[in-house]
Design brief:
- Helix content is about 30%, strand content about 15%.
- By secondary structure, the protein is α+β, with helices and mostly antiparallel strands.
- The longest helix is centred in the middle third of the chain and has 20 residues.
- Helix 3 runs antiparallel to helix 9.
- The protein is globular.
- It is built from 9 helices and 10 strands.
- A hairpin with a 3-residue loop joins strand 2 and strand 3.
- The chain folds into 2 domains: about 100 residues, 2-Layer Sandwich (Phosphorylase Kinase, domain 1); about 180 residues, Transferase(Phosphotransferase) domain 1 (Transferase(Phosphotransferase), domain 1).
């Protein structure tokens, strides 16, 4: 039996708490069947599902009840769908539109793969060749996203799915912005910037709206973490972590993992520059320098372009 959000048992009584508390495996939401819970965050839960009309496997992201009451959260959710509909790339999760839905929720293609966070938690430090392969795949997806005027702004291992061939899919564009979009008022707390403390860029810590080079900074952090099994900056709380990147440089990667090449150390040095003007100008440029570090290439640091004056 198909039901709308309002027809789910107890839905109206649970407004302001969490509508997902009444969604369970086997329920139907419009023409989608709920097959199981995948993940739950502070703002939404994601379910594995099936489009019963087509038989297609999908992911269904359902905001918690406060989305109905909080305009900022509602705007964030709707923006993710709007941005997703304009993107079409194998490295970016595809949003599936419907002409009509009974409530606010997001449907995307089902992507086979594991979150990069799960891989890092299980395997720890990755071999440089594999870390490079994953980072280049991320660069290619970011190059497409940025060319369409979109900035992800929350790039982190949790939002990157990795398949058996180490090709990636970017997910969760909940705080992404497209060119010309109004600045969102929503923050993670009353005085904190958008983003995740370990991966947020220095300019975003200062309250400056992130751009493509902010995403590239986050990718630099992810690459560092894949190679070193730790992020560049650590601290006892998120504020300390964010402040560290404003006043200190990260430890050189070769001081932690001596077998990393000098060329890769220079790539990371440029990606993690505090001044965005000194970082890579594009994801494509980042990818080209990474590919020079791959086994079987000339590698080294001599071919890398200087980080200043860009």
């Amino acid at each position: 039996m198909r039901t709308t959000l309002e027809q789910q048992p107890g839905y109206k009584d649970l407004r302001g708490t969490s509508v997902t508390t009444v969604i369970k495996t086997g329920d139907h939401l419009d023409h989608y069947r709920i097959d199981g819970l995948v993940s739950r965050t502070a703002l939404a839960s994601t379910f594995r599902g099936t489009d019963v009309d087509s038989g297609r496997k999908v992911a269904i992201k359902l905001p918690h009840g406060e989305a109905e009451e909080n305009p900022s959260i509602h705007e964030r959710f709707c923006r993710e769908e709007k941005i997703g509909k304009k993107l079409n790339h194998p490295g970016v999760v595809k949003v599936l539109p419907d002409e009509w839905r009974s409530g606010v929720y997001l449907v995307t293609e089902w992507v086979e793969g594991r979150p990069l966070r799960e891989i890092l938690n299980r395997e720890g430090r990755l071999e440089p060749a594999r870390a490079t392969r994953i980072a280049v795949s991320i660069c290619k997806a970011l190059d497409y996203v940025h060319s369409h005027g979109v900035v992800h702004r929350d790039l982190k291992p949790e939002n990157i799915l990795v398949d058996f061939a180490d090709q990636i899919t970017l997910i969760d564009f909940g705080i992404a912005v497209a060119g010309g979009a109004q600045r969102m008022a929503l923050t993670t707390s009353s005085d904190a910037p958008l983003g995740t403390p370990d991966y947020i860029s220095p300019e975003e810590v200062k309250g400056i709206r992130g751009n493509a080079r902010s995403d590239l900074y986050a990718l630099g952090v992810i690459l560092y973490e894949m190679l070193a099994d730790r992020t560049p900056f650590e601290g006892c709380n998120p504020l300390v972590v964010m402040n560290e990147r404003l006043i200190n440089d990260p430890a050189p990667i070769r001081a932690i993992v001596p077998e990393i090449s000098c060329g890769m150390e220079e790539v990371l040095h440029r990606a993690l520059q505090r001044d965005p003007r000194r970082r890579y100008a594009s994801a494509d440029e980042f990818a080209r320098d990474l590919e020079r570090q791959a086994p079987g290439t000339a590698g080294g640091h001599a071919e890398l372009r200087p980080a200043w004056g860009v």
